[in-house]
Amino acid sequence: MRVLLTGGAGFIGRHVLRELLDRGHQVRVLDSLRPDVHRDGGPTLLEGAELQIGDVRDRAAMERALIGVEAVLHLAAKVGLGVDVNDLPDYASSNDAGTAELLACMARQKVARLTLASSMVVYGEGIGSCPEHGNVSPGPRVEAALSSGNFEPPCPHCGRMLNTALVDENAPLDPRNAYATSKLAQEYYAKDWARSTGGAVVALRYHNVYGPGMPRDTPYAGVAAIFTSALRRGEAPKVFEDGKQRRDFVHVRDVAAATVTACENAKPGFAAFNVGSGTPRTVGEMAQELAMALNGPPPVVTGQFRLGDVRHITADSSRLRREWGWEPKVDFKSGMTELANQ
To answer: Does 220 have pLDDT greater than 50?
Structure first.
């Protein structure tokens, strides 16, 4: 296929590009090379692909990028939790207005296949299991409770402690920060576009992606990159809360394989898939694994918190395995060792 890959010069994008080329697809990359991601200015050449420098919010740039294209993989976005409320306009503009512009251009040029990089953040706190009330959606985190070290969200009905549960694609959608809200809005725009045009959309809800090429030393870097940077400076990684936050860390090459598989198999309408390893880990475990790989100081648990974070979010990715035969191939220990030694 002739495909357009937006954000193809970024962390996940470059791995998706390699997967596309390895499978024989013709690839055009559109990337704005935004300075908060590409502090060195970014690449001017991506081997095996055509690179167009432009922003998805720029209609003329989008019209040029879509010429002759059969499918779009849309990864371009402002990522991360954000620094403060002043980031709100950039999330809304970069992610939501940009996606709307892309979809409108796709409709005009009759490009009918979209793979959207969404995120597990659309689930908010996900699902907890209460001994009395079964599976429930935890209520909002309360700053007073967090300040006193009560990090576990209680059952919203009886206040009892919840057990964590894997989140499938039918879980309630409950974004709890600006990035999460913008990713869910992207999904809704894409669903509207599919309904109006008869197009095919696959929204991939990536869980915590890590691996070689992660951006580091920026306010929007992921926690794995932040820990690795600290360890390379000889500092102990600082783990927020009590370090027992549960996540699903999935290697970027596995994410790339899932993304290209979705592009190749998309059917008319809208479908969402979780992309995770299937094995929950704590943030503290990840920090410890990286410290061991780099022979650095052990992690320090700080008790600090960010109100916009979620406590536990772990994926049920069985739908992706069942419908398309995708399986993660990189195990946690070897993946973290690779990240530490890149």
So the answer is: no
